[in-house]
Every structure is written in structure tokens, then in C-alpha cells.
Amino acid sequence: MAGSSRLQDPLINRRIKVGVFNVPITVANPQTGAAVTVDALVDTGATLTVLPGSLLRQIGIQSIRQQVFELADGRTVQWPIGNAEVTVEGLSTPTLCVFGQEDVSATLGVVVLESVGLTIDPVHLRLVPTPGLLL
What we know:
Helix content is 15%, strand content 43%.
């Protein structure tokens, strides 16, 4: 009997990749207001938000320093970062953005999500409000 109820479980029978989804974000230059909207992968494994460097330069964001990052494959890279304002789900926050390589997919990192009080719902593939922690 337990086996038949398992077959009825809609989560087991889903044909989508649970936990992987994109959302539109707007990245703006906080000094000029110039902005670009992109479809970004939501990645809670990424600290900062990443965009192709040319998109950040297009809206006038300048690199303020280089930062070291560890990639998913274990390699270490050093990429420039700059100050930006990111808006997701109508909520905005100042943040650091990474000037990624030109072939990089836009990625929404966890710093922005935590700053605006959002977390992922991996079952329904959406962002949902969450309280901040002051422990």
C-alpha cells in the first residue's frame, strides 16, 4: 500500500527540475538612474548578483575593486565588482554586483534576496517573503 501512495504523490511525479528558476530583475546605476532589466537565475549558492560586465558598463556602473570568488567547479577567479541598485519583485536594495564574463548568465545572488526579505519556494518555483533574522 505504501508504494501506491508514493505513486500518487504529485511532487514525486513532477517533470520539472525543482529549485531552478529565473525572475526578472532591474539593475540600476544609483547615481544616474540608468537601468537594465534582465531575466536572472535565482541562485542561493551565489553570494552576489552577477551580470555580463558590458551590461553594467552600459548603465555606467564602475568597478570599485576586484574580489575573489570560488566557482561551482572549485576554480578560484578574481572579478571586478561595483555598486548598483537591484530591484526584484518590486523591492529594491543597494548592493554589490559582479562584472561577469560576457557569456555569463545573469544570476541573482543571496545577498539581494536576504536584503529585500525574499527566499525561494523550490516546489512552486517562486520567490516568497521571509522575515529577517536578528539572532
